[in-house]
């Protein structure tokens, strides 16, 4: 989705109120219970104001200290930037794992197919992850997350059908959002 | 629980464990070996001894191909940069007022917007971007030539880029031009570039 995002898409930047950052933090903690307030404070310090960068097609980027933290379409869910994801340990998020063979295609921007998850190196998402939830994808033998996507099939379906798109990739390493510098 | 610190590669900006899936893997490896030898050992040392199965071999091969392609592309880009010319054009606006137009900067890894700010700061004039050209107010061609050469050397590591100065054609300036060119020839080497540009223009 961010494949073609470039600097030219930026429309304007504005600073956000501190109350917004407070609300955002609360929301995040409610969403990812394993993240503590202290950790979040380190990533989004109170002293440094957040700013909102508006882009083409109703895309908003939330940045702090010239680092992109989140992206958002319309008023949908916040999509965390991978650098933000990398700061927290893997247990904090709803995650799944793909095998080695899939990495190359994901980094090329393709969606994740079922076999990449069901094969030997992959790990299925846990049962509490529902369809259309935001999932963070890790890879076999690698430490860091490599993409953020939306689950298109439940864990059960992935296992049984083993065919078709399992995760719709939104943001991956090396796409426009990753390479964007503000 | 503390925050996880991820090491990012300076070359490809990926977390280091994904470097080998990038198009610049060889350069990344060299960088990592130099700057973070411990991490390099961890990632690459035990790999060579491992038995690789058919599938991973295939992946590695295709990655290598990708890298090669990227290398060629980079090379071509560099060549393009080396061959390209920067043209500094002096435009006469009113009788004694001139503005400068700089063409051909977009090939280089420079940020035009930042550059324009830099110019306007440095030379204390207005500087704007018009279709990938920088337009400066004021007769500054000589200063800018020096500045651009310096800038390219510092920021892009490129040397010997051709910078050409052109004066926009106008009846009034033609006489001046001839006089200047004659003066340049008399002066000898120092303004040789100017003469060359002038000849090109006439031809």
Automatic annotation (TrEMBL), chain A:
Organism, scientific name: Hanseniaspora uvarum (Yeast)
GO MF term list: RNA binding
Family annotation (InterPro entries): MCT-1/Tma20, Pre-PUA, PUA, PUA-like_sf, Uncharacterised_CHP00451
Subcellular location: Cytoplasm
Family of the protein in this entry: Belongs to the TMA20 family.
A cellular component annotation (GO) from this entry: cytoplasm
Residues spanning the signal sequence: none
Protein's GO biological process: formation of translation preinitiation complex
One Pfam family per UniProt: Pre-PUA
Protein name: Translation machinery-associated protein 20
SMART domains for the chain: PUA (SM00359)
Stored PROSITE patterns: PUA
Stated role: Involved in translation.
The organism's place on the tree of life at top rank: Eukaryota
TrEMBL record, chain B:
Name of one Pfam family that matches: SUI1
SUPFAM superfamilies: eIF1-like
Gene Ontology MF term list: mRNA binding; translation initiation factor activity
Organism taxonomic ancestry: Eukaryota, Fungi, Dikarya, Ascomycota, Saccharomycotina
Matches recorded under InterPro entries: DENR/SUI1_TIF, DENR_N, SUI1, SUI1_dom_sf
Protein's UniProt name: Translation machinery-associated protein 22
Coiled coil region boundaries: 49-85
Alphabetical list of PROSITE patterns matching this protein: SUI1
Gene Ontology process terms (BP): formation of translation preinitiation complex; translation reinitiation
Annotated SUI1 domain residues: 86-152
